[in-house]
Write a structure and sequence with these properties.
The chain contains seven helices and 15 strands. By secondary structure, it is of the alpha/beta class. It has a single domain (14-274), classed as L-arginine/glycine Amidinotransferase, Chain A. A hairpin with a 3-residue loop joins strand 12 (227-228) and strand 13 (232-236). 46% of the residues are buried. GO terms for molecular function: dimethylargininase activity. Its EC number is 3.5.3.18. It is an enzyme of class 3 (hydrolase). This is Dimethylargininase.
Length: 277
């Protein structure tokens, strides 16, 4: 069982985000996207800016990536790369509609002088990779099944020098790891068991016996697509039961509204890449 009211420690984070001023649903590459459903572009920008301000107000640093014409999903900045200790493993998108985003992310990281390792395998950055520096000496959790391909897990392990645990996603509604699982501090996670194969559920239960579990309603509300600094958990406001479970475990839920961006298949975490320097 999760320890109730355990003291949680905030650690300042550095993030990368990209404004949704060019966001639209112009194609459908996940079950949440419907080209017939209109997007309120102005509301999307306001909601996104509310998320950005929330992170800044919590004491974190936010870098901004410039959105480019013809790339309506650039707002989902988490997918562009995966950084651990200043080394960046780049993305290689599955769908050609997003392929050009990878080069823009690479240019950002290289302009800052960080070591960039170009991928040879299909992977979608933090969409399918999560890092827990205090779990078992430093552990990468990696999803596969819909976007990132299994050989990318071995490539990431070689690039970043951290052990990688592969987790098989089996429900297409949870097409990325970051809509099914989130790190809530440097050594623990929250996740929805139903998104994973039976074997992967067993692995998660062994690795994280104190994990916070989400029910199907909160998972479908994108509650697990969250950002945590170890104490404050910024999550979709519709995930009320998950917020209660996090609060009982000693975290402070910080709800935000991102209804427009959910139309593209993302929420809080999809919009936020962590720069682990």
């Amino acid at each position: 069982m999760v320890t109730v009211n355990q003291q949680r420690v905030l650690r300042k984070r550095t993030y990368l985000m990209c404004s949704p001023e060019r966001f639209a649903v112009e194609y459908a590459i996940n079950p949440w996207m419907d080209v017939a459903t209109p997007v309120d572009a102005e509301l999307a920008v306001r909601q996104w800016d509310g998320l950005r301000r929330t992170l800044v107000d919590l004491g974190h640093e936010v870098h901004l990536l410039t959105p480019e014409p013809g790339l309506p999903d650039m707002v989902f900045a988490a997918n562009g790369a995966f950084m651990v200790d200043g080394t960046v493993y780049g993305a290689r998108y599955k769908h050609e509609q997003r392929a050009a985003e990878a080069g823009l992310h690479r240019a950002f990281y290289e302009a800052h002088g960080w070591r960039f390792i170009a991928p040879g395998e299909t992977n979608e950055g933090e969409g399918d990779f999560a890092y827990l520096p205090e779990a078992h000496g430093g552990l990468i959790l990696a999803g596969h099944g819909f976007r990132t391909e299994l050989p990318a897990h071995a490539e990431a392990q070689e690039a970043l020098g951290r052990p990688v645990v592969s987790l098989h996603l089996v429900d297409p509604r949870f097409y990325h790891l970051d809509v099914a699982l989130a790190s809530i501090d440097d050594g623990n996670v929250a996740y929805y068991p139903g998104a994973f194969s039976a074997a992967s559920q067993q692995v998660l239960a062994q690795l994280f016996p104190d994990a916070v579990l989400a029910d199907d309603a909160d998972a479908l509300a994108f509650g697990l697509n969250l950002v945590s600094d170890g104490a404050n958990v910024v999550l979709n406001g519709a995930a009320t039961r998950l917020a209660g479970r996090l609060k009982a475990a000693g975290y402070t839920p910080v709800p935000v509204e991102l209804s427009e961006l959910k139309k593209g298949g993302g929420s809080v975490k999809c919009c936020v890449a962590e720069l682990r320097l």
